[in-house]
Inverse folding.
């Protein structure tokens, strides 16, 4: 989403070109929807790939010599053309941004659909709530008259984090830039001053678990083992979540599992509990170490599929 904020500011001060990844095939450095902005002397963001980005930036600066609205679609087979060993294929849209036609930016929010109509010497855009399907990196390139639609932003897994102590704060510090969407809860009023923390009554905190979507990761690390247990029970008693993690030792795990068994939680549900949390082999107990190990573990979860772009 960072490119949107940059695009709101840059064109008013200097000419800017935009590089958009329309589609990829095989091993490619970034996915469809990735963008970077290029001026005569500066670059904002990255499409990755070393030689690919170098060539694309050259093309972006070349298009700045043309009138605002000028655009071109280019294909890059990474192995044959650029000598990159990954061997994938990338289709790019390179354009000289016309600051006179950026009114759509006011409607551009994550999850909506950006529709781009390729015209002679111009790209007309608007934001809708319509569907989008993948574009191919092969076959006929989009040309004048083509319509390209894409989801704004990328899919981010909801992370329901319970506990705003040292480890919770470390997780929140390190989450920036990751494909995770944080929902952060605590029951203690003292944490109302921390940005992002929702202080909820202890009597109703299980409702937060009930309202979590099925693709959410729930991580439980409160100040109170009794509260930890209530949240764990709530997470394992509902429809399966993508991840249910509980901070603690093997001893804590054994005690919780024994109690869950006595309370009638089935074997399959108990098997969904991850405790301790974090990648195996990372043994540090410092909050930042725990946070990084947990976030890396969450990044290993299977990702939901997001539909990205369609050309017609």
């Amino acid at each position: 989403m960072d490119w949107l904020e940059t695009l709101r500011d840059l064109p008013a001060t200097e000419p800017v070109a935009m590089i958009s990844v329309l589609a990829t095939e095989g091993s490619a450095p970034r996915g469809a929807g990735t963008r970077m902005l290029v001026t005569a002397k500066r670059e904002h963001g990255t499409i990755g790939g070393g030689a690919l980005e170098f060539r694309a930036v050259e093309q972006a600066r070349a298009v700045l010599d043309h009138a605002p609205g000028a655009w071109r679609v280019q294909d890059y087979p990474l192995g044959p053309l650029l000598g990159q060993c990954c061997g994938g294929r990338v289709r790019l849209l390179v354009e000289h941004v016309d600051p006179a036609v950026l009114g759509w930016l006011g409607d551009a929010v994550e999850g909506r659909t950006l529709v781009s109509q390729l015209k002679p010497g111009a790209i007309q855009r608007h934001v809708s709530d319509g569907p989008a399907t993948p574009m191919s990196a092969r076959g006929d390139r989009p040309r004048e008259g083509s319509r390209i639609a894409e989801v704004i932003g990328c899919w981010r897994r909801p992370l329901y984090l319970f506990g705003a102590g040292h480890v919770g704060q470390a997780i929140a510090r390190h989450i920036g830039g990751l494909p995770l969407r944080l929902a952060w809860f605590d029951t203690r009023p003292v944490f109302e001053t921390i940005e992002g923390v929702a202080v909820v009554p202890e009597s109703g905190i299980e409702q937060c678990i009930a309202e979590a979507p099925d693709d959410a990761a729930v991580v439980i690390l409160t100040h109170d083992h009794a509260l930890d247990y209530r949240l764990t029970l709530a997470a394992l008693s509902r429809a399966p979540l993508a991840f249910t993690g509980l901070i603690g030792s093997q001893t804590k795990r054994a005690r919780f599992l024994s109690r869950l068994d006595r309370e009638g939680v089935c074997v399959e549900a108990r098997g969904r509990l991850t405790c301790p949390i974090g990648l195996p082999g990372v043994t540090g107990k410092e909050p930042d170490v725990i946070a990084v190990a947990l976030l890396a573990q969450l990044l290993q979860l299977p990702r939901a599929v997001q539909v990205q772009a369609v050309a017609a």
The radius of gyration is 23 Å. The CA atoms of residues 108 and 127 lie 6 Å apart. The chain has a mean pLDDT of 90.
